[in-house]
Amino acid sequence: MSDFRIAADIVAADNDRRAAALDADYRALGEKLARGGVDIGAITDKVSEFFVAVPSWGVGTGGTRFARFPGQGEPRHIFDKLDDCGVIQQLTRATPTVSLHIPWDKADPKELKAKAETLGLGFDAMNSNTFSDGADQAHSYKFGSLSHVDAATRAQAVEHNIECIELGAALGSKALTVWVGDGSNFPGQTNFTKSFERYLAAMAEIYKALPEDWRLFSEHKMYEPAFYSTVVQDWGTNFLIAQTLGPKAQCLVDLGHHAPNTNIEMIVARLIQFGKLGGFHFNDSKYGDDDLDAGSIEPYRLFLVFNELVDAEYRGVTGFHPAHMIDQSHNVTDPIESLISSANEIRRAYAQALLVDRAALAGYQDGNDALMATETLKRAYRTDVEPILAEARRRAGGAIDPVATYRVSGYRAKVSAERPAVKGGSGGIV
Amino acid sequence: MSDFRIAADIVAADNDRRAAALDADYRALGEKLARGGVDIGAITDKVSEFFVAVPSWGVGTGGTRFARFPGQGEPRHIFDKLDDCGVIQQLTRATPTVSLHIPWDKADPKELKAKAETLGLGFDAMNSNTFSDGADQAHSYKFGSLSHVDAATRAQAVEHNIECIELGAALGSKALTVWVGDGSNFPGQTNFTKSFERYLAAMAEIYKALPEDWRLFSEHKMYEPAFYSTVVQDWGTNFLIAQTLGPKAQCLVDLGHHAPNTNIEMIVARLIQFGKLGGFHFNDSKYGDDDLDAGSIEPYRLFLVFNELVDAEYRGVTGFHPAHMIDQSHNVTDPIESLISSANEIRRAYAQALLVDRAALAGYQDGNDALMATETLKRAYRTDVEPILAEARRRAGGAIDPVATYRVSGYRAKVSAERPAVKGGSGGIV
Amino acid sequence: MSDFRIAADIVAADNDRRAAALDADYRALGEKLARGGVDIGAITDKVSEFFVAVPSWGVGTGGTRFARFPGQGEPRHIFDKLDDCGVIQQLTRATPTVSLHIPWDKADPKELKAKAETLGLGFDAMNSNTFSDGADQAHSYKFGSLSHVDAATRAQAVEHNIECIELGAALGSKALTVWVGDGSNFPGQTNFTKSFERYLAAMAEIYKALPEDWRLFSEHKMYEPAFYSTVVQDWGTNFLIAQTLGPKAQCLVDLGHHAPNTNIEMIVARLIQFGKLGGFHFNDSKYGDDDLDAGSIEPYRLFLVFNELVDAEYRGVTGFHPAHMIDQSHNVTDPIESLISSANEIRRAYAQALLVDRAALAGYQDGNDALMATETLKRAYRTDVEPILAEARRRAGGAIDPVATYRVSGYRAKVSAERPAVKGGSGGIV
Amino acid sequence: MSDFRIAADIVAADNDRRAAALDADYRALGEKLARGGVDIGAITDKVSEFFVAVPSWGVGTGGTRFARFPGQGEPRHIFDKLDDCGVIQQLTRATPTVSLHIPWDKADPKELKAKAETLGLGFDAMNSNTFSDGADQAHSYKFGSLSHVDAATRAQAVEHNIECIELGAALGSKALTVWVGDGSNFPGQTNFTKSFERYLAAMAEIYKALPEDWRLFSEHKMYEPAFYSTVVQDWGTNFLIAQTLGPKAQCLVDLGHHAPNTNIEMIVARLIQFGKLGGFHFNDSKYGDDDLDAGSIEPYRLFLVFNELVDAEYRGVTGFHPAHMIDQSHNVTDPIESLISSANEIRRAYAQALLVDRAALAGYQDGNDALMATETLKRAYRTDVEPILAEARRRAGGAIDPVATYRVSGYRAKVSAERPAVKGGSGGIV
């Protein structure tokens, strides 16, 4: 296996060029925050300890049902993917773990652990796949998986999820994320109640196979690939699942899986209140499950989600430790650059949320002073916290401007020399 | 008090003119259904026993924030409204009960009962109002009611709801519907968690005041009058309320209170499955809470909702007895005509759902035969069941064509002579 | 080439079994319509002359970005596809033409014409593809085609469209449909104005290559595959294109390409009024471009679209001759069955629209009698016109119940014996 | 008439307290921008010359169809409203003009001009009202105004618009904004084509009455108060209007009048490209026409709109001079505070858009470097430009922190002493 890591001196050299400007900006911001009674050092420390997992499937170029247009140096397998994830972590210091997707990332756990350790990486939640058929699969998921009318198909899907747990346990993962596309395209195609009963029974079997210290995340989604109904269609159904299964079961919130106009931050608040927020799949969207880069379309919405998370920390909610994961499809950018940028955007929203004056906010809320309450959020949000993010990266050994450093490093060209070119796929599906 | 009831001979005369055509259509439909093994008489009987409550506020002309354009003979008070409701019931025989809205309909319960009995009417669920301020109200609901930050305001709202229960108990009602507009217009204006805690605590007090055989319906709504967040924003939150309060608490589903593209029939199925479907506010909508006439925009959606209700009956779900109520705003029609028509549309959807061949449907579902499953629904849906509806009305003493009979009767002109004209309101609100 | 046509005696035998019931239903409906002054024979004649084109890509099983689950006997190439289209036409007599998609359906035009003639088929609008990359393509469409920043890429896309015209001319087609996925996934990725200028210039070159009696249809779509902006995003932009290009350019309306809650029938009316309605891609949708079977989700919406078309006929709009085409993705059904069913649904909406009493409707509209106006539409809509559709099919030599006859015929099993099985595709794209 | 202007020394005193912090922040930002080659002084100058009109109806507390909860010191008439507008301008120096709404603001033009001059105010576009009925109105707008089936009603609406032009001409206004709520609540209620023909004919009469140097703005809106169809429902129809009428007719874009998920900035670009962007009604929305404060829900969207405006300036588009107007409903805040804050948010988006490095952006666009293109926008957007906005206000004689100064001034209490309290309205409309 080649080692494609970016040489430390490349990072150092690029940082050197940017150090003076960062110092000036960090100092100016520090003085401004100090005037408001905020210690920039404390914020920087908190940001340094905030991490988000990278999805293994995110480092390859994504696509739509119409086509996929691969880039150069596409990763061939999980070991290539881990190399790419290693670079993201090296430059951002915000992404020390990787989320695997089985069966695509199936490999000898010892080799996986060894490779990850070389790169300074660990493993986050495992992801099963029962939304497409594998080459040698006995039962097709065309008409569903965990909710399928056929018991053998459901058993196969349960078995696959248990296999994911076992591999994850060998890797040090502590959670399984279950997303199924089960649903229907026609009114009447499925019986809503019976489908959900079958889903719950199958999930109960998976739940039984969970190690003591694991969590089970169920993920809801309004539609796609099913276009009339989806078994786990919204957070209401997702909550019923987590409640029915037990304390280790919690809900995963993907920011792009909601109906138009939905107030997502409110769903986050409700799940926190009832002890069922498991974590996030971060991304952004304008229309549906667009899987765009986090914060690229509605950055204020991302901030408002983090405002709830920081508020829960502030209130000391017991048992509150949501998993932070990215889930994006990078169709027109270098996936490594998008993941670097997205990890930064997520930290940015966190840093801005940390700047909210929560005592003042509570006062305005209690006084029904809507204008000053919202202005309190806006003041935090419009603070340009980039110096804090850059400083946190620099202190941890990362890059001040990680995308720029990545480009300077020539990483993509280097891996392209080793990884064969892939032809564009004509989806053939319209 | 005048008696404006339509003379029986007017109904009889209009029915006579239509009897031959109805006989022919009923016979032809009966023969066609018999070929499929369905007894038209049994369906007609079931339809005859299906009722939906009329909202007292529905017989006056509605409006928007921009304007209200009253019609002729607007009801002046609850007794005028009961007269109008009496006519609807007289002609449709589908609406034997009225839902009151307090404080607008507040009156001596004895007088209310007496008037209703004269008209052959009873009382359905009571509706409280804490979304606008009364003239002599101590605390304003500008910033909320049951979830208000101020304890005295919450207490006032609780008190009002208890008063509604008491009046309802005197009238023979068995349920209280609580809809609040509480929410916020700005991010940060309210704390989602604290607001909901306050709401739940206030509702618990109302719950305690419920008579043994009453139910408490909470109603969710995505937005309006609050435009950023709403305390009871969706069925997920609504379920949490009903579960937290106890067995007498159930969820009310208004067909226009959901996010765009929402699969409402699936929400209905989930609430049935978890024992929390309290009932409906029927209407139709294209954009938001448009409060249009039931079945006027998406009649197939109304059918799909009834498909779930009839399926629950068919499966013999225990404790299943949802309340059927209309909640509409009639801005451009004679409200009596819209309510007659809507009651018929709701019965139509019920009749069509009764025609679904459920054994065949289950077979197609078990065989993943999506095309024939959906065709099974469509076959029932496209049956023109108007002869069944008309026959059910005729047999019960109503009108074969109730809107036509209503027009012939001259009712609107008669009440207009007694009820003074109302000038159009310039909302002044843009 | 095999001949898989269904034997005439199979159709005849199945029709025989159903003749008596159809006769009875047709007679009963005829009597009912006659009472309202409508001649069922005239309606049946009009329905018999209404046709809709089948898309060549529709006879193969479709999929999503997550997976594709092929069925048995998937067509291997355009000649297999034509066989399948032939069966649809044989049984429905509603689909005498096929719409080709290039490059997938590229073949010797003489062979195509000969095969089509054997099957009694002709060719409707040609469809170009510049949303995915072909194997031997010089310039990638990853970042656009007709609006690409690079002139050579645009020229290649123009050239491809001209090639489609040339092939179509040889086949007797009279129109080219251009849909491009060009757009962006990030704010700032493209300059809206420059992109549209490039698109217009490229389309002008294609327009110049049109034969005298051809039309050019541009198709708008809100989003997908681009998730932030799309060059031809709505009917407003589509109208600007058609107006800029000239009289042979018109707009194509796909029922699934609009924003949530859009009033599509109104867009149809506007395009008719301004002489720019080119035609339709019929399908149905609940969320986005779901490409579900026509009339399967909102049948009343389909009726309302046809209400506009029949109204334009009724008013004698000059130059009004929209193209009727289906564009669907059949993921969970036998595509042949879905296309048979969809062609029937489209004819159903047409037949129902023909039943609207337009003189009465105009009277209600002029009198602001909203209730009776909408009831006039509803009366036509709720007429079960299946006997008319079946009779039209029977008279033209088709099947009374075409899906049933298709199943009896064993067509799918027969082609499956010849066409090799295809393995399910794991999209690999999340 | 009282003079409620805020004493200059109050402003000066509050500015003094904030001067040192502003100086420091302005200096630090200037240094940072200078590093990127941007002159903060030039940006400050441009911001100082950017103005937005205040709507007269915005200084009163708004409401919904459910209720209206007035605040203290509600303005009684246009002269009170002008006082309030004067304060907004005095503190922000961003709102030197007022947009009047007739008939509410009808008064002797000489008195209006005199009062405005005292306050340093001028008059922006006139707004007509044909969506509600006045007390002494001959023909009701219940079923429409400019598109009404009745010629006399249309003539009355035309006459009213001409009266608005005449009053505006006397006041120095240069534009008329026409928004009508005409539409329908039921399929079939109106004929789409005939309605639009009547609308166009009526607008043509208004157009003829325009003075030479005036513009006519038509405003589209998806829905409300009509809930099935609206005559001017989207920008496509709006464009057809402007094109049909002539060069003085242009389209007005209200940010809350679009379908869910619509890319509004793209519509802005299209209207600029085709010479038909008349101007804006700024506000923000999450669900429908929520009329929330500009920038309060999706501030990045507001920035992206301004990105198009600044880009048009940058490209030197001929005849480009859109009108900037606010149109909001302030239901839970002091309207003066919301308008101060909104004017600032609008200037903020303009200032951020000015910071976009357009040469770099064009380079990234030409190179299909989506990541850096969007990052170029984001860099400008995340700059905290508050010091520029504050400095622009200070230099022009306004307040560094205008909301704070307003609160210190005691203005609301002073006017409340003179203006009688208004009772909360129970809408009575559900």
UniProtKB/TrEMBL annotation, chains A, B, C, D:
<dbReference type="InterPro" id="IPR036237">
    <property type="entry name" value="Xyl_isomerase-like_sf"/>
</dbReference>
<dbReference type="GO" id="GO:0016853">
    <property type="term" value="F:isomerase activity"/>
</dbReference>
<dbReference type="InterPro" id="IPR013451">
    <property type="entry name" value="L_rhamnose_iso"/>
</dbReference>
<dbReference type="InterPro" id="IPR050337">
    <property type="entry name" value="L-rhamnose_isomerase"/>
</dbReference>
<protein>
    <submittedName>
        <fullName>L-rhamnose catabolism isomerase</fullName>
    </submittedName>
</protein>
<dbReference type="InterPro" id="IPR013022">
    <property type="entry name" value="Xyl_isomerase-like_TIM-brl"/>
</dbReference>
<feature type="domain" description="Xylose isomerase-like TIM barrel">
    <location>
        <begin position="97"/>
        <end position="291"/>
    </location>
</feature>
<keyword id="KW-0479">Metal-binding</keyword>
<dbReference type="GO" id="GO:0046872">
    <property type="term" value="F:metal ion binding"/>
</dbReference>
<keyword id="KW-0464">Manganese</keyword>
<keyword id="KW-0413">Isomerase</keyword>
<dbReference type="Pfam" id="PF01261">
    <property type="entry name" value="AP_endonuc_2"/>
</dbReference>
